[in-house]
Amino acid sequence: xxxxxxxxxxxxxxxxxxxxxxxxxxxxxxxxxxxxxxxxxxxxxxxxxxxxxxxxxxxxxxxxxxxxxxxxxxxxxxxxxxxxxxxxxxxxxxxxxxxxxxxxxxxxxxxxxxxxxxxxxxxxxxxxxxxxxxxxxxxxxxxxxxxxxxxxxxxxxxxxxxxxxxxxxxxxxxxxxxxxxx
Length: 182
Description:
This protein is 20% helix and 32% strand. It has one helix at 146-181, and strands at 4-7, 14-17, 21-25, 31-34, 40-41, 47-48, 54-55, 67-70, 75-79, 87-91, 94-96, 104-107, 110-112, 121-123, 133-136, 138-141. Strand 5 (40-41) and strand 6 form a beta hairpin. The longest helix has 36 residues, at 146-181. The chain is elongated, with a radius of gyration of 25 Å.
């Protein structure tokens, strides 16, 4: 489930370099898991996904914050006006599963845990065993090369066509041979 990391320059974009998922809460309270770290601030400053799902545990960025930094351990710090030192406003936690392929996809890059995935385990990025680190101003991109996959699909399609024509020609030859015996 891990892709390549690409730099975005957006301070609220965070990628997980290694295993783990962000835990988010849907508006109805359902807990979901995602690797998409393209976060935004809602109207009260809470970090939310593009769909408005709240990062869990909730992290609120104070209004008027001059800068924001997110450490590899998930520590979120802001620099406020009139203050010379950054203050910590929260810490992003990651969730992992014994069998991440057992998660149930519900669309929009959201997953639910299942019996097959095992129970969720929360931990601190980079410090807890089995968790990746957070990379600020990066997003995870697909590890699929679209142009290469299109070329492979065309090659497969042409191979199928050639094999189909060879089978058709062999079938026609067999019919002609059967007709000659009569």
